[in-house]
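Incident log entry.

Two folding requests arrived from the same account within the same minute. Monitoring flagged them as a possible duplicate submission, but the sequences differ. Recording both here for audit purposes.

Request one:
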Amino acid sequence: MTPNAASASSGPSRRTFLASTAVATAAVAGGVPLLTACGGSDSGTRDGTTSAKDAEKILPAYVASNVVKPDIPSRNGSAIGFTGKLDLATLKTSVAKKLGKGGRVTVMAPFWGSPPKQDNAYYTAMNDLIGVDVVWQNQDGNTYDQKLGAVLASSDVPDVVVVPGWNMGGKIPSAIIGKFADLGPYLSGDEVKQYPNLAAIPTDAWRRSLFGGKLRGLPMPAPSAPSMVPLYRQDVFEKEGYEVPRSCDEFMSLAKEITNARARRWACLDMKWTAFQAFGVLSGSEKPLGWNLVDGKLVNRIETEEFLEALEWSRKLFAAGVVHPDSKMGKNAPDPGPKFAAGEFLIYPNNISQWWGRTAEQAAQNPEFKIWGMDLWGHDGGDPTLWADQPAGIFAFVNKKASESVVRDVLAVANVTAAPYGTKEYMMTNYGVEGTHYTVEDGVPVKTDKGNIEVMNAYVMVASPAATLAHPDFPEVAKGQVEWQQRMGAFARKSAFWGLQITEPARYTNLTNDVEQLEDDIVRGRKKIGDMQQFVSDWKSRGGDKLRDWYRKLLDENGSAAS
């Protein structure tokens, strides 16, 4: 299969996050419940979360799909896996009849790359399959937050707006509650059974779609098993006799053994994200941004010794000269793919999607190349303490002013895009039209040049099936990815707020805006650990302690999501 090119960074970039939850994994790959705790209904305040009791009245019924049986079932929060070849003659049908009524629906979504023209063959075929005229307003994914803020502040909001979790800062959560429709009357309880593929979306993903006490989002489900993997050149390890490390000390020793700056070989890129995993640092990529109970006390990840220890170990790698010079450039470092393939460095942490992406890139030109994922370790050589990822992180919302016919047409779109792997609808959504956008060679779908231009991250943004890994071109990679998730998922804990969609009071939303840059400065030696300790002290006085009290009340009134 020809991969969709993705600009990757040495850390978990937004683009690669999308690749894991939409493109690469898909790339075969009634009542008016109130907002509890610190919140209220639409007419009241908009802070807080939805209690378990109220959520039960809102959530769609779950009806597992039996259209296609995976080769590897989900376990420990992993994706489901498929490891066989693809036979188009045996593809199943998951949408028995066209549900769209021919209406026009405008969709604004982030897009990475050059958007195709609206009348292209892929969009035309998808719209015909669904029975809806979807008109795309694709926006540059790299600056999407700016466009999103402007659109939501205006009166001209498209019928559907896609909002990734990383863009939900500032006033965006409040705008979501104020601007977008309650889908409960269409999807809550047994109502969802009109849309079988939506009914098969895991309940935890729907729970993350509750905003302001109502079901507003159409989710893109994600595995709760960890998604950040230390990827390494397994072929070089085998050739040189290197052993995969099982502690931070072993990693340092290995890194020094690998590194030879004169020969332009370094051990790794910035390993900060692996350090966070090795030291058991609370997740900080999505709301509630690293809050959890520790010995009965509510703490934020930046207050913990483990956080500082992870930064210090990462700093020592830079100081030892084992980190590739590109990593000193930070987030704007060049795409690591070519230099990784050339052997300039052998290890880097990134989203699990790159496991397949790098394999596909190098298959023809570098047949000896083999990338694999290291099992995570505890810093001292024991078992790691990992934290479960959120079960959904990208959502599509329907304009509050949309008519019922428009809402129904949007749900018709979502019911097709959420079709499971192994169905005709999945193939159309992810590959387009056979013969035009892809061909199948020896059971492997291969995109044509036209397919690579037109069939990109559009329709998959509206809704997706349960997290799936399927690579007919490299089934061993799909198997490796799922089994890695299952092994690491066994060590993953759920934080007290796991799975909840939480809207913080706006006055607190910018408290930790500068922490990631400070982290990067510390590990590169530009700042000191003491600077982070001072930041935490200032954070507490600027509102961190008050935010802690707010979360404590939220927890007391709602209970732990992980209990």
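Request two (distinct sequence, not a duplicate):
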Amino acid sequence: MRRASLALVAWLLAGVAGAATPAEKDLSAGWRFRLASGGAADSFRGASGGLTKPVACDARCKPFTDWQPAHVPGAVQTDLLELGRIADPFWRDNEAGLQWIGLSDWDYQLDFDVDADTLRRGHVDLVFDGLDTYAEVSLNGKKLLSADNMFRQWRLPVKNTLRAGRNTLTVHLQSPIARLQPWLMKQPYSLPGEFDSAFGDEPKGKQTSNYVRKANYQYGWDWGPRYVTLGIWRPVRLESWDNLRLADLHIAQRHVDADTATLAAQFDVRADKAGTVTLDVAWTAPDGKTGSEKRDVALKAGENHVEVPIAIDHPQRWWPVGYGKPDLYRFHGSVSAGGTSLAEADRETGLRSVELRREKDQWGRGFAFVVNGVPIFAKGANLIPYDAFPSRVSTERLEAILRSAKDANMNMLRMWGGGTYQDDAFYAAADRMGMMIWQDFMFGGAITPYDDAFRETTRIEATEQVTRLRDHPSIVIWAGNNEVQTGWESWPDREDFRKFVNADEVRRIEDGMRALFGDTLRKVVTSLSPEVPYWASSPGTDFEREANVLDDGDYHYWKVWSGSEPISHYLDVTPRFQSEYGLQSFPVMATIKAFAKPEDMEPESKVMRAHQKFANGDGNQRLLLYIRQEYGEPKDFASFVYLSQVMQAEGIELAAEHLRSARPRNMGSLYWQLNDVWPGASWASVDYFNRWKALQFHAKRFYAPVDVVPMRRDGRTEVFAVSDRTTDFDATLRTRVYDMGGKLLRETSQPVRAAALASTKAVTVDDATLLKGADPRRTVVSFDLLEAGKPAAHHLLYFGAARTLALPRPELSTKLRSEGGRTLLTVTAKRLARAVWIDTGDLDVRLDENAFDLLPGESVDIVVKGDVDIDTLRRTLSVRSLVDALKEATP
């Protein structure tokens, strides 16, 4: 062994002095692109036979056949926009006229130089971190690759294809629709998908997106546009190395508790020859304490998985936001021989334990996340892609959305399966913030093919993604898909499909889904990241029984909104974990003005319907249905927009607080959805420009660590003290009954012992006791949870839907001032003010409070954050309440 080790050292070091470690050459700059010869959309028209509207390239394409500068990472659509060759894809109804881009083939090309020193290295690899999606790669005229998966990395050995001096790299991108549609039209059936195209480029029920590993949402969703992108959407580089490459460094967490962290630094090493090397691991704790471990290991020629054990006493553990500090450790690993470093890598991770606890109880079987032994009630939302064009999302933008979630007291976001796996920067930011991430694999609901090739490319994709992301402590679960199982079991189009296809084929499709989500992806997670739980399908029961049941697993509830049931029906369901539910709204007027002209400002205008994707534009009527049920008739378009946000915020608040009050029967509330991919109507609480809607401000309150929750049903109100604190505390429940005009009718108080990590029922009271003869239409009850005499939580209770109440005109007044280097806004109500909204136009400011109710005579001080002078803010600012938005407000 000693002789072999010395021989390896000599061999490793010979001729590579000063160049022992791998080197990288960034290939992101200097690209050009053009419409591929014969690749225009008009050729696809004849191939598919399924088009019903003109999408042909015609004269529009002719200027695009010459080479033009391109951005990498990027997409054809964003390159054309940068060049001014197309109009803003988000403006008005431009979407329809830009579909030809995704139906055409495109070429990208790069000339780059390689020096002789690079070619003398033992290995030179061309690495694409992401190709979108069907891509043929050629180097100096030699074809190297036919890529077919947007989510995979492609590593190509090119040492023998490169030449000293100038080299030419070409990527030919094929439209996934044009490629697959002719094949699909010949098949005996089409697998059920998600949303049919609104533009006639695919026949109804003939969706190609099921059959390709590409982001589903780009084919159009009920909250976003149809932009089927093509491009080199993630970085590309040249990597050169000699004899040995460190493919991955992973800090496996075998066991973590308050006393000890038992870890293993796992090195994946690719070696050309057998021999012995030294592995070094140095770590730095959050408090600056350091440690290191070293180990000699024997490598074989080929792939090696070797490790160094690490033990850390009394680790500073990573905690979700609200439960402790999200502490992170830094690890540096190196591979050396003869005292010379051959490869190095750094990792930052948090030490924590994660459990998905599914204990049987009186309600069925639980579904609770337990971090470091503490059961966590998951408070958050679903996260969709940040943009229709993912390559233009900056690190600053993704971090800003995460901060919005944290600022609203969220502790979990579900990375929904119809989009993309996020960049490393997203998960690193979530790590630092203590934000738990529910990570779906990228399957958005469409039924999957069962062939071996599709399953194998998905296995490789999953292996690469889990390997890339497994050191992020924020990821607390991997889920196989979104709504594939429940869709197959219960959606009408799937039921019709099963009747159409013979029984043997149905069985093969079912077996294929179970094999992919129940076996293949599970094995990837359990082998590469065994400390993180795997969940086969959301909603689901991990294939142990049917999906989307109330007494087991996670649950998606859409009878409210999609089923048009009243908002009050949120109180009728109490699942073990509610991972989807939602109500729509429009964004603020400043955002609407970013995509529409003044003449478009009507709910049923062509442009507003184009930016309302639910039910092909009919979603605006659904919004009006709920607005009218709860509030009445909007008096104009701006009032419609405002009322849509009030309805969404108050409806989701009712649902979320019901779920929190039901702890531990329910252990999670993730509403649909946090963010937007473009400006338009959607379920988001934060719009495309990260402007907070009313729902986000409400979430900040209903997701607060301590909440007081009055739940009124059938004339009786139960009041709960909800606490995420890890220790009990004593409080006082104060109940005050007001006439809406300003008179305090009655006040009572009683002690409450708020239990840790629990919902404590404080009181049950009927309407008659609360009202004592007062008019319910003109009465409001204020519940305050006081701790040491100071409010810890506050909530108002009304006796009926807002449209049934005799709401007064509140006579709101505002005052702006500078104080202590801050800009403060004071809002005062003479009488009860329902749903106060402060609008700051298109000023780049953020209010720390908005979308609230004020009791008669009450004032609130609001911090205005942003670089704006008071005079400008005073001219722009406006304030309104519910009565200002209705055609027939009761005086």
